[in-house]
Predict the structure.
Amino acid sequence: MNKFEDIIEKLNLQPHPEGGYFKETYRSKGEMNEGSLDSNYIGNRNYSTCIYFLLTSGTFSAFHRIKQDEIWHFYDGSPIKLHTISPKGVHSEFIIGRDFDKGQAPQLVVSGGDWFAATVIGNDDYALVGCTVAPGFHFNDFEVPTRKELISKFPKHQDIITEFTHR
Ligand code: GUN
């Protein structure tokens, strides 16, 4: 058994619709009601949620966006390269990892509303991270564009969008 298969089994991770494996580890019991959230949200949301997320080499988490900021925490394995495209079309790259001498950081905040995609840097490896959001995650706040839709918004990023979209 590969080490990552062992982790998937021990942490009881499930396939994530956009690539990788995940398990929700925390969902606050408390809720914010719609009236106290900004107008982008329809309905109530838990205060906060957290997941384990595991990505393997040669796969990727496809470009998607959520409404709230998402805080990534590095736990184990190879570093992750995360790409963002802001609503204004600025592409940025970040490395989430523990090699501080190389400028990697063990935490990264992805701004709500940015499109983002992630890959594992090493070959034949995996990355295990945590992703925390507030308000809590809801699939209604999760948008996955097609390759064509995202390229039509940001034609100059066609190559990176083609690389990190499934369809
Ligand atoms: N729960 C299910 N999918 C996700 C995700 O992509 N991010 C966060 N933070 N929680 C999730």
